[in-house]
């Protein structure tokens, strides 16, 4: 057997531990050799917990000493761009957490750098790896839904402002629910639709509750430093004539605690994503064409698996640099449209 590929993780927080390191440790072909975190004690403590041999506070030192083949970037959004470029310069394949970056220009630079280096760059848009999403994409390609002209994507929380990390800090995070959770349903919807070309977007963003309340489903936050939107509503118009409506919130007075789903309305049939359910109307009656009982929740490990298999040469699709760029471009256009109060052409 060829030698094991060496893996390093940059940013030793929650997602690094529960998703990236935990998945890599299940693969015999990989050796997780290092964790880097700007807080040395975090890097050391994660390394100790998971039995990873090296911990660093400086990524350059890690590259010098460990020479990894694969790097996971799990730092706050603002640092993705520099950490991905540094990993590619050091000859590594990269799995980067979402969102790709802070701007479409950065995401384009990351895509181009990966192409130039001939290395894999994947983003952890994990909802597209659920069986439900894969199944619906196949059904859409097979024409079961017919022309899809309305898509409703929702990533809503009634009071789910994250009480940890930097999720309420616009400067470090780039935005609120749109860039944190809305982006996931946006990616899943675009994936199922086959990334149709976008014509224009319009949007409204609000900051009404996050700067007034201070506790919720995910702990406490400081309303005085809440600088992101707490709810955002957007309409994306495609060149093919269809529209995608996106609703996303950290805090919004709705009856459900959380909604993460996408609804597709086609000429032949409609569908919801989680769990996958395809239906149509027959003389006023809802008829189910196919339905899964429960949604597949093992999406995160499937996303990691797709990345590792792809690196190892399997013909598996990933959320790549180009798709990461297209999603980042859409997010930027939505924020711009909300800020200007008028639609933005792409
Ligand atoms: N795909 C998903 O569903 C999902 C879920 C959670 C988080 N994320 C993403 O993962 C990233 C991290 O989120 P998290 O929840 O793990 O946050 P976290 O705050 O738990 O962890 C981030 C870690 O990065 C470290 N760090 C900060 N700046 C650094 C730097 N310049 N160099 C090295 N380390 C640095 C911090 O000390 C911290 O330990 C974010 O981009 C977030 O959007 C994605």
Automatic annotation (TrEMBL):
InterPro entries given in the database record: Gfo/Idh/MocA-like_OxRdtase_C, Gfo/Idh/MocA-like_OxRdtase_N, Gfo/Idh/MocA_Oxidoreductase, NAD(P)-bd_dom_sf
Ranges where the Gfo/Idh/MocA-like oxidoreductase N-terminal domain occurs: 5-124
Residue ranges constituting the Gfo/Idh/MocA-like oxidoreductase C-terminal domain according to the UniProt record: 138-346
One Pfam match: GFO_IDH_MocA_C
Superkingdom as given in the UniProt entry: Bacteria
Protein name stated in the entry: Gfo/Idh/MocA family oxidoreductase
């Amino acid at each position: 057997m060829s030698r094991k590929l060496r893996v390093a993780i940059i940013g030793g927080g929650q997602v690094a531990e529960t998703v990236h390191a935990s998945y890599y440790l299940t693969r015999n072909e990989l050796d997780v050799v290092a964790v880097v975190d700007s807080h040395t004690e975090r890097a050391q403590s994660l390394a100790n917990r998971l039995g990873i041999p090296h911990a660093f506070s400086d990524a350059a030192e890690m590259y010098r000493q460990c020479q990894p083949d694969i790097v996971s970037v799990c730092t706050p959004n603002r640092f993705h761009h520099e950490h991905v470029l540094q990993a590619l310069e050091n000859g590594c394949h990269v799995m980067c957490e979402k969102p790709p970056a802070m701007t479409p220009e950065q995401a384009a630079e990351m895509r181009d750098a990966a192409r130039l280096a001939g290395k894999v760059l994947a983003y952890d848009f994990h909802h597209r790896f659920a069986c439900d999403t894969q199944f619906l994409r196949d059904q859409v390609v097979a024409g079961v839904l017919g022309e899809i002209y309305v898509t409703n994507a929702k990533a809503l929380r009634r009071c789910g402002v994250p009480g940890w990390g930097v999720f309420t800090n616009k400067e470090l995070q780039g935005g609120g629910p749109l860039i944190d959770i809305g982006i996931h349903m946006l990616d899943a919807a675009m994936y199922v639709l086959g990334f149709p070309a976008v014509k224009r977007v319009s949007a409204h963003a609000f900051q009404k509750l996050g700067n007034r309340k201070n506790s919720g489903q995910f702990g406490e936050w400081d309303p005085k430093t809440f600088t992101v939107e707490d709810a955002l509503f957007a309409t994306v118009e495609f060149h093919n004539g269809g529209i995608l409506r996106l609703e996303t919130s950290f805090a919004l007075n709705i009856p459900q605690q959380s909604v993460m789903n996408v609804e597709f309305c086609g000429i032949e049939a409609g569908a919801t994503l989680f769990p996958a359910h395809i239906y149509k109307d027959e003389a006023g009656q809802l008829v189910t064409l196919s339905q899964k009982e429960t949604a597949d929740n093992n999406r995160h490990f499937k996303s990691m698996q797709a990345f590792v298999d792809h690196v190892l040469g399997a013909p598996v699709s990933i959320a790549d640099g180009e798709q990461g760029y297209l999603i980042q471009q859409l997010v930027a256009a939505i924020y711009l449209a909300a800020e200007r109060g008028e639609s933005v052409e792409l």
